[in-house]
Amino acid sequence: MFGKGLFKGMHISLKRMLGPNVTEYYPEQKPTLSPRVRSSMGLDPDKCISCGICANTCPNKVIALTSEKDENNKKVLKTYHMDVGRCLFCGLCTEACPTNALTVTQQYENAVYDAEGLKWDMIKRHRQQTGKEG
User: What is the model's pTM?
Assistant: First the structure.
């Protein structure tokens, strides 16, 4: 029968038009995200032991970290940078982290105006989020 697809399409359109409203009022009401959503990265610099395993496991080489030895000859994290514009949010770096210092978070408001805003200083970002300065 000709027009079968047309009737099916009209049925779907009418069902959507007359059905319940599914609009989200985003800025006023934050959406409820699934626990599996991966949209940002988080670092706890106090847990990080500067082993570099996360940087080595990253397929896109997004992570760059530096460390120095303290007076006890122990590695201390100096800088931790991520180019999130190239990040796949695959989670391989978080799975490889032996101390769970690096995590995938659900913070989804990461829009920036230029590409430089996607190069994150993770230590500075952690301090801003926790309110710690220093």
Answer: 0.75
Fold of 35-130: Alpha-Beta Plaits (3.30.70)
For residue 80, list its beta bridge partners: 65
pLDDT digits (tens, 9 = 90+) for 52-100: 999 999 999 999 999 999 888 888 999 999 999 999 989 999 999 999 9
Burial class (CB in 10 A: 0-12, 13-18, 19+), 21: exposed
Question: What are the start-end ranges of the E strands in 1-134?
Answer: 40-43, 63-69, 75-83, 102-105, 119-121
Helices (H), the chain: 4-18, 53-57, 92-96, 122-130
What's the one-letter identity of residue 96?
A
**Domain residue spans in the chain?**
35-130
